[in-house]
Amino acid sequence: MGLTRRSESKFVYLEVKHHCLWRQLKKPLDGCDSVEVTNPQTGVILTKHGFRFDSVSGHVVKIEKYDTLKKYSKRYFGFKVHFVEGPDTYVVAMPYESQVLRRFLRLAHNINWELPLSLTVFKGKKEGGKEETGIWFQQRGETVKAYYTKDAPHGMPEAIYYQDVEQWDFKAQHRWLVDKLQTETMADIAAAAKKVAPPIQPAADDLGDEPEHDTTDSGVIPPHGEIDDDDVPF
């Protein structure tokens, strides 16, 4: 089963927010959750409505790039991964500098795209008074391990440490992993999709509630934020 809660639409758009997979709503519905978010630029507190999910699963049939350069005054870009389970498609946004994309990039090489994949989001350990977001990919009931690691970089460039500011720079490393996604992983997914579950093209009236990007909680994190054991530089 892809998700416990069902939607009237065949397309369900999800974001990694609020320590869960969040399906944002344009207006409140019966049984939905409400969260307060603060616009970091204005300090205004807003109430957002949506549904929370722990996991999504299905065959990954497509990864597509998105870029709001021509749509919004503020630019958001990244990738959307499409999970297909039966007649339904679940589309998970992975912003360019997000934790979920960084983890996905490191382990995508180890995924068998002809088998279902599961993504679980949960509250992780507290660091400095802040609860981290846990990201867990599984296949065949087992954790998908990272392919690009500290001990086995497989050609991945090293991060650069700047002593003057005491910060690590992961930009070149991240760009290299994104290039692998676009030149290798996307082709592997497309080839597997032809065998198991070709991607469904949504009808104009069947798009569901695709989230609108905003500045309150975009899911984007700083290049040096939320570093965990898997992200420790070399």
Structure, described:
The protein is α+β, with helices and mostly antiparallel strands. It has one domain (11-195). Helices cover 15% and strands 37% of the residues. The protein is built from two helices and twelve strands; from the N terminus they run E-E-E-E-E-E-E-H-E-E-E-E-E-H. The chain has helices spanning 99-107, 171-196, and strands at residues 11-17, 20-25, 33-38, 45-53, 55-67, 77-85, 88-95, 117-127, 130-139, 142-143, 160-162, 167-169. A ten-stranded mixed beta sheet has the order 3-4-2-1-7-6-5-8-9-10. The model is unreliable at 204-208 and 214-234 (pLDDT under 50).
Give the SSE map.
Layout: E1 11-17, E2 20-25, E3 33-38, E4 45-53, E5 55-67, E6 77-85, E7 88-95, H1 99-107, E8 117-127, E9 130-139, E10 142-143, E11 160-162, E12 167-169, H2 171-196
Parallel strand pairs: 1-7
Antiparallel strand pairs: 1-2, 2-4, 3-4, 5-6, 5-8, 6-7, 8-9, 9-10, 11-12
Summarize this structure briefly:
The chain has helices at residues 99-107, 171-196, and strands at 11-17, 20-25, 33-38, 45-53, 55-67, 77-85, 88-95, 117-127, 130-139, 142-143, 160-162, 167-169. It has 234 residues and is an alpha+beta fold.
